[in-house]
Every structure is written in structure tokens, then in C-alpha cells.
Design brief:
Strand content: 5-15%
Radius of gyration: 19 Å
Distance between the termini: 15 Å
Number of strands: 10
Number of helices: 10
Largest sheet: 6 strands, mixed
Length: 361
Amino acid sequence: MDLNDATAKATVPTTPVFCTIIPPHILDNLAQSDDPARHEPARRTLEHDHARRTRRREIAAEDRTPGEPDAAADKPNRTVYDAGHQENLPGTKVHAESDGPSKDASVNRAHAGLGATFELYLKVYGRKSIDGAGLPLNATVHYGRNYDNAFWDGERMVFGDGDNDLFRDFTIPVDVIGHELTHGVTQYTANLDYQDQAGALNESISDVFGSLIKQYALGQTADQADWLIGADLLGPNVTGTALRSMKAPGTAYDDDVLGKDPQPAAMKGYVRTTDDNGGVHINSGIPNHAFYLVASALGGKAWERAGQVWYDVLTGGELHKNARFADFASLTIAAAQARFGSGDAHQAVVKAWNQVGIGGE
């Protein structure tokens, strides 16, 4: 594994994942509600997301690969569009990189979230934007009407305003923005399949770096972080704290409308299902918890050692598209030893995977 190539480029055509931050099992529960105010937005969102997956496949067929970074690749190039509550992308351009603050808070939050993601990848890992070559970062806000989701479609970030009941504006949590953009990083590096364990790893990697982006922006150490994904997203009528918990998978929410958080923290709770591409948003709790265990054992700034090991594996060229949890575990163990030796970092990674029921060599 070449750990020095922080901007490793994909050598095969990339496959952009259409990932939505609100997983299908939550929307499915909402769609069954007797309350039209709740089931109608959920049903529209589910129908919309199905159509967008078709567009994702069209983008995938274009076989995009990163180019060479230019002189300005170490600075973000952000553009924000306004969909005006329609579903036509990208919408109207309302904010460029050089513009001052907007009167629209959603525009400002999207701009800042794109910047926070760019900054972590550049300053910590030497990566120039999500493709390693200075890719411009585009976002669209005010997408659809009461659209309860946000997504990366292979070209841009798209944010709904939420329904102001169960979900708030999707530009609010910076870790959600970081999560979705990290699907772009995965798209241009390991290009993990969005199915079964490889898909759960795809989701988990986005949660890991989404959390690190939030921690980096807030200057938090591992013990100060909440390890929650989407902590500011849930509305006042939801019994819960976030969409997911890396510290304690399965505890993020327990709500009479959303249902109960189904994520397992270890392989003994692994969910076998044909829904959601083999449960990619559910079983991601297992590698999520492994990362939390590594970061908490090492302490300090989680992006420095735990995050570096995960980044090395993501970009190192040895992570196969259809990797299973055990494959990823073995690679992180090897990467920890290669970069940090046989000391506490290596030992923490070995112990964490054993704790979640996944052995590694």
C-alpha cells in the first residue's frame, strides 16, 4: 500500500453513489403513518429518491475520472444554487466563491459546510478537493417542497428544507454535508460497491469523515466529540438525539413515528436483509463503532491517527470494490502498523475490530 500518495487517483471508471442521509427504513416508517402531514412528504421523498437513482446510473455511465490538479487546486471553488422549491437541478446560481455572505442562511451554511469539508481533506490529508484534483464543489439548496433529505448525486450536494416537524433544514449539520461529500471521495478512490458489506463500508466511511469534519471544525478531541451523525437535524417532535450514534449504535432515536434505531454495534447483531441494498445504512454501525473504539482509545484529535489510518486504506489502492468488513479490518491493521509502527495505534485497531466481532490479521 502506498501511504504517501494522499491524492491517489482512481485507475478505473468511478461509480457515483446516490446516497441520501435519511435512510430508507426511516422514510418507510414515516410513509406508514396515518397522519397525512407526515406520510405525504415521506412518500414523495421515497418516489423522488427512486427517480434520482436512475440519474445516478446515467452519471456513472459517463466514466468520469479525476484530472490533474491545477495551480488553484489548494483553494475551494464553491458555487451554491437555489432550486426555488422545485426539483430541477442545479437551479438558479445565487452564490459564488468570491461573494460575501448571503441573506439566505441556507446558502451560507451550504457554503460553509463545503468549505469545512474541503479544509479537513486539504490541511489534514493533503487532498485537493474530493477528487484530489481541485474539483469545484457545487450545492443546491431549497430543493423540492418539504423534501426530507439531502444527497450527493455524483455531481453536487442537494439539500431539502425538511418538513419543519420531524426534520429541520438539511444544511444545518456540517457532518451531514461532510458525509455526503465523502461519498464523492470514495467515488474517486476505492469506488466501493453500494451493496451489502461493501455498501455498509461505503456508508461508514462517510460517517467517519463526516464526524471528523465536524470535530475538526469545532476543534474537538475524541473525548469531547458527541460521535453523533445529524445531531441538529431532528425536529422538536422526535424522540431522539440524531440519525446515528457511532459511540452507541442503536441508541440514536426511539420514536413512535420514526421507529427505533436499528443499527448493531457488533457482528452478532448483523442484519441480513434485501432492503436498502442489503442494509447498508444499518450494518454500517459495526465499522462505525470500530472506528469510535480506535479513536477513543488513542485520544487526542481523532483525525490525526485513527482518521489517518482510515484515509490511508481508502486511498491506498488495495481496498477492493466488493470488500467485506474483514478485508477492511485487515487493511486498517496493516496501515496502522505501516504508518505508526507496532505501538498503541496498531494495538488499538486490532482490539477494536475484535471488540465488534471482526478479526483481522
